[in-house]
Automatic annotation (TrEMBL):
It comes from the Bacteria. Pathway: Amino-acid biosynthesis; L-arginine biosynthesis; L-arginine from L-ornithine and carbamoyl phosphate: step 1/3. This is Ornithine carbamoyltransferase. Reversibly catalyzes the transfer of the carbamoyl group from carbamoyl phosphate (CP) to the N(epsilon) atom of ornithine (ORN) to produce L-citrulline. Belongs to the aspartate/ornithine carbamoyltransferase superfamily. OTCase family. The lineage of its organism: Bacteria, Bacillati, Bacillota, Bacilli, Bacillales. The keyword 4Fe-4S does not apply.
Amino acid sequence: IPTLQHKDLLTLRDYTSNEILELIEFAAELKKPENKHLPLLQGKVLGMIFEKSSTRTRVSFEAGMLQLGGHAMYLSTRDIQMGRGETIADTARVLSGYLDGIMIRTFAQSTVSELAENSSIPVINGLTDDYHPCQTLADLLTIHETFGSFKHKKMAYIGDGNNVAHSLMIGAAKMGMHFTLACPAGYEPDQEILAYAQAEGAKTGADITVTHDPAAATAGAHVIYTDVWASMGQEAEQEARLKAFEGFQVNESLAAHADPDYIFMHCLPAHREEEVSTAILEGKHSVVFQEAENRLHAQKALLVALMGK
Ligand code: CP
Ligand code: NVA
């Protein structure tokens, strides 16, 4: 069981390379069929606050808690008093009296930090507008399963400089993987997060760069990654984004620039024929369903590390 110096997972910025590697190795252990039902969280209860939709996050956290001998509770902000204006701090203090951990999916990263500051129990970020750390843990597990290591591997992220991209560039930097993000002008990642990832990368030998040229980004890549062009909360921008991202689709002609043994990754849900062609999503290089399954294993490792103490 990995020993973490943290109460929470708010962003992977707080985690060292070694802590991330330990989590991934523990996740690989928990993934073995004989370890599926280890009762490491017997009787523990996780509350899961959702202010946005979810399939993978909701189901993998709930199934994971049950497999570990605990229980998970789905709390939609449409139902709980937080959605009617009860403060985050009060919600945190009340839930700390009932639960052993909280997972939250919301808009502002500050909501997650405020919840954590006012909770005596672990808080896990299940996606904000800025970060998606649980997705990155599963992605790193998938890359590790495929290549056996991270060093000197190259990831090309084609698309929006969003929450998924932010967490991935931090994860890549900490694991020593080169990372290039190709996006249209105006859709770059946050400058401060990029600078942070570049500084982390300088310590591990990973180059973290941004370009507007998808073919250049993909040249020699071992991993091609993409995500939707309009994230949750950006529905009104859908049309404008469809236009802006023209030429940034991951398809056969773009993938031709990658390493012959590249893998294609996507956090899902996917929009076929927008950010990715059906041929690539369904093709032999695609690992998207292995990646989705790995959400379960990576999060079980995280839950045990944070709540098993
Ligand atoms: N990848 C991901 O977080 O999926 P959901 O939105 O379905 O949870
Ligand atoms: N960037 C996407 C990821 C969904 C899992 C969103 O925030 O909607």
